[in-house]
């Protein structure tokens, strides 16, 4: 296995190229892997791949300030999600989409969400993309895929807006676990890192409090 920091660097560089990456969490937590991509570089082709190999529920991680600026209230008044995943109401982009569900439409919505010039008026609610409010402090505060997505994009120096969806097993019946996730990443040439690696990387590089882009 490669040292923890290198898996993070590889994942960050892949995000900058617009590639999908795979991020796994702790076996004692969810033991799941999420496909993640930078929203600003989303394409219909990459979205189609994401939908094909995941639950098909595509979320987008954003900071609280951006969620508030887009006027996206929590999906429910009382969140009973066991991991505290902070869903907001779902959205579609108003311009450039039709039904909102196609890979092309969902990629368009992602790109617009990543565009700081877009405002609440540019999106319809409900829609087919599910924004998530990332906790301030990232994986240091909460070791979730929502926070990992945003941390990796901040390390990449990209727009703080990333798509994520959970990979399903090849039979489509269960969520994919290790070691199937490692095989999946190898088969499709995806950079793979873990939330534990990301926590270790931040600690080792003096980023426990704030993230700065890496080379």
TrEMBL record:
Listed pathway(s): Cofactor biosynthesis; riboflavin biosynthesis; 2-hydroxy-3-oxobutyl phosphate from D-ribulose 5-phosphate: step 1/1
Q: Which UniProt keywords apply?
A: Lyase, Magnesium, Manganese, Metal-binding, Riboflavin biosynthesis
* Gene Ontology cellular component terms for the protein in this record: cytosol
Source domain of life:
Eukaryota
In terms of Pfam families, this protein maps to: DHBP_synthase
Reactions listed under catalytic activity: D-ribulose 5-phosphate = (2S)-2-hydroxy-3-oxobutyl phosphate + formate + H(+)
- Range of residues in the leader sequence: none
- What are the names of the required cofactors? Mn(2+); Mg(2+)
One GO molecular-function entry: 3,4-dihydroxy-2-butanone-4-phosphate synthase activity
Enzyme category, top tier: lyase
The enzyme's E.C. designation: 4.1.99.12
Look up the record and give one Gene Ontology term from the biological process aspect: riboflavin biosynthetic process
The record describes how the cofactor is bound as: Binds 2 divalent metal cations per subunit. Magnesium or manganese.
User: What family does this chain come from, according to its entry?
Assistant: Belongs to the DHBP synthase family.
Kindly give the PANTHER family that the UniProt entry links to this protein. Answer: 3,4-DIHYDROXY-2-BUTANONE 4-PHOSPHATE SYNTHASE (PTHR21327:SF18), GTP CYCLOHYDROLASE II-RELATED (PTHR21327)
- Description of how the protein assembles with itself and partners: Homodimer.
Summary of the function given for this chain in its UniProt record: Catalyzes the conversion of D-ribulose 5-phosphate to formate and 3,4-dihydroxy-2-butanone 4-phosphate.
**Which protein are we looking at?**
3,4-dihydroxy-2-butanone 4-phosphate synthase
Tell me the organism. Answer: Diacronema lutheri (Unicellular marine alga)
């Amino acid at each position: 296995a490669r040292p923890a920091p290198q898996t993070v660097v590889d994942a960050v560089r892949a995000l900058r190229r617009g590639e999908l990456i795979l991020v796994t969490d702790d076996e004692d937590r969810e033991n799941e892997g999420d496909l993640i991509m930078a929203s600003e570089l989303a394409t219909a082709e990459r979205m189609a791949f994401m939908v094909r190999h995941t639950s098909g529920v595509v979320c987008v991680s954003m900071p609280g300030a951006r969620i508030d600026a887009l006027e996206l209230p929590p999906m429910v008044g009382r969140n009973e999600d066991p991991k505290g995943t902070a869903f907001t109401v779902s959205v579609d982009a108003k311009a450039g989409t039709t039904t909102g569900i196609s890979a092309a439409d969902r990629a368009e919505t992602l790109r617009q969400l990543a565009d700081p010039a877009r405002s609440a008026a540019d999106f319809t609610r409900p829609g087919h993309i599910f924004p998530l409010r990332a906790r301030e402090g990232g994986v240091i505060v909460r070791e979730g895929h929502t926070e990992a997505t945003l941390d990796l994009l901040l390390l990449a120096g990209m727009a703080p807006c990333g798509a994520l969806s959970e990979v399903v097993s090849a039979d489509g019946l269960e969520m994919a676990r290790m070691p199937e996730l490692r095989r999946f990443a190898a088969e499709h040439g995806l950079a793979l890192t873990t939330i534990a690696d990301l926590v270790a990387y931040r600690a080792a590089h003096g980023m426990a409090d704030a993230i700065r882009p890496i080379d």
